[in-house]
Amino acid sequence: MTDAALVLIVGGLAVFVGAIVQGGVGFGLGLVAAPVLTMLDPDRMPGAIQVVNVTLPLFTLAVEWRTVDWRGLGFAVLGRLPGSVIGAVIVVYVSVYIRGAFVAVMVLIAVALTARALSVPRNGLTVASAGFVSGITGTATGIGGPPMGLVYQHAKGPQIRATLAMFFFLSAAQSLVILAVVDELPARALLTGAGLIVPMVLGFLVSGRLRRYLDGGKVRGAVLAVAAASAVALLVQTVIAQLGV
């Protein structure tokens, strides 16, 4: 089996699962799929996952676009712009494994602080800050969901999914442009991303029942659980890479 086939098969399964999670919670595709794709072929990342990231939100928006928090979205995009520039610098000068470890630690800290608090205020400052951090981590690793997900954890299911979908669509498009400008978007990354769209669509279609379950008041717990589990996966990936296993 060729490396490309392995990436499409194993990576496709990860994208399928990630699309189910994101279809229900509002984010999670990058969290689930990015560590797997990075382990399979780091040279295709983060470009490959960004191709998928720019496509999946369109399916969510087609169903729930009316519930977008446009004011919050504006602050998030404003914060993301400078964050993306920093993320691009990290892509050029920092190894993919160190990037992953950094993101994992930051996500675990955020989850721990959030789990202990009764609520996280959602205002212009916090949303813009989340957008800024998401710009750094999303551009550098393809994982930009946790900061925004944690800020919107108390929102209703449809609102968090629609708002994050619009944010991720704009963010992924921006990241692809920036990666191309800094010459970190090889053709094979684009081709791999295109090949992963099929399992992504299948995963989104399967996520319908999960959305109904989470809309019963379980969104916050699901957001924290997905973020924490993915952060642990990133740390494990880094340790394995460093040990040369």
Can you describe this structure?
The protein is about 80% helix and about 0% strand. It has 12 helices and no strands. About 55% of the residues are buried. Helix 6 (about 125-140) packs antiparallel against helix 7. The protein is mainly alpha-helical and about 240 residues long.
Q: Brief description of this entry?
A:
81% of the residues lie in helices and 0% in strands. By secondary structure, the protein is mostly helical. Helix 2 packs parallel to helix 12 (219-243).
What is the 3D form?
A: globular
Estimated share of beta-strand residues: under 5%
Averaged pLDDT, please? 83
Q: What structural class do helix, strand and pairing data support? A: mainly alpha
Q: Regarding quaternary structure, how should these chains be classified?
A: single chain
Explain the layout of strands and helices.
Layout (H helix, E strand, L loop, with lengths): L2 H23 L3 H12 L6 H18 L5 H24 L2 H21 L7 H18 L3 H7 L5 H25 L5 H9 L1 H10 L1 H7 L4 H25 L2
Task: Offer a few descriptive terms.
about 240 residues; mainly alpha
